[in-house]
Amino acid sequence: MRKRKRLTILIIVIIAAVVVLGVSLATGIGGSTDKGSASEETTDDISGIVSDDNGTSLDGSDASGSSGSGSNASENSGSESSGSGSSGTESSGGSNTEKGQFITGDSITTMGFPYTDESEGITIETLYSYSGYYLEDGSEDEISEVAMLEVTNTSENVIEYGTIRLTADGEALQFHVSLIPAGATVLVMEADKKSCSESADCSYNGSEIAYITAFDMCEDLVRVENDGSGAITVTNISGAEIPVLRLFYKNQMETGEYVGGITYNVKLEDLAAGESQTVYPSHFDPEYGVVLMVRTYDAE
């Protein structure tokens, strides 16, 4: 309960803390692992690696020793798993204008935004300075004036993972994104918590984006239900046992933008045919959390 209250506070802090940067352009601006039936993990890595006890990648293979340009982090947080035949444990600035629930600065389109990289299928809407809780490594550390991008996936496919690179006053910045639907917008914080001054000259250094055609919810195998309380119930309708299943999810703003380039996932194990298991992912917002993808695996 305390963790879910913190998540709500975190989102409120984001609402209050975003202040747009007045950036001039040089060349254009171009979780946790729980010990039980379910566990929560995070990923924001350019290589698409999801870090957990076994170093499991998105395709379920062993990724121990693999690395990318981003960081993988875990946070000890609680979830509960229950269902017929299963047992679970619980562990517990500037001039601003409103944009739905959140605050954005005055438009700076005349200074180079938005900037579209057609070859990579992204548009950088604007650049912010953000103070509040840091999301990109799952730590929720308090930060001040960290650079944050608002980025839209302008392609017709899902961004599976990627990195966007900028330079501000000679300082290299990078922003990792993952699981962004076609046409969706995300607010992503700088990967190394670097700041960017209001007078910075900023240039676009390119992006590396990997795509998948669409999200797979495995609707022929499982039924996923979100009751709005923060609980997610998964029912096995396949007729056979599912050894391992992962739910990949993100949180949204009231106006639809995704918060954080990071993607969380929660793992369920030994889901028998006809069985239901209920999990309470610690990062999942009851009102604005969205399960984007489901994947099943033959083994952990």
Written account of the structure:
This protein is mainly β and 300 residues long. It contains one helix and 19 strands. A hairpin with a 4-residue loop joins strand 6 and strand 7 (122-133). The longest helix is centred in the N-terminal third of the chain and has 16 residues, at 2-17. Mean pLDDT is 72; it is low at 1-5, 15-37 and 43-111.
SSE diagram, text form:
Blueprint: H1 2-17, E1 18-20, E2 24-28, E3 38-43, E4 96-99, E5 102-105, E6 115-117, E7 122-133, E8 142-153, E9 158-168, E10 171-180, E11 185-189, E12 201-212, E13 222-226, E14 232-236, E15 242-251, E16 258-259, E17 263-271, E18 276-279, E19 289-297
Parallel strand pairs: 2-12, 11-16
Antiparallel strand pairs: 1-7, 3-17, 4-5, 6-7, 7-8, 8-11, 9-10, 9-12, 13-14, 14-18, 15-17, 15-19
Give the H and E element order: HEEEEEEEEEEEEEEEEEEE
Helix content: under 10%
For this entry, what is the oligomeric state of its chains? single chain
Task: Note the overall shape.
Answer: elongated
SS strand fraction = 35-45%
Most strands sheet: 6 strands, mixed
Say how many strands there are: 19
Write a compact overview of the structure shown.
The protein is mainly beta and 300 residues long. The protein is 5% helix and 44% strand.
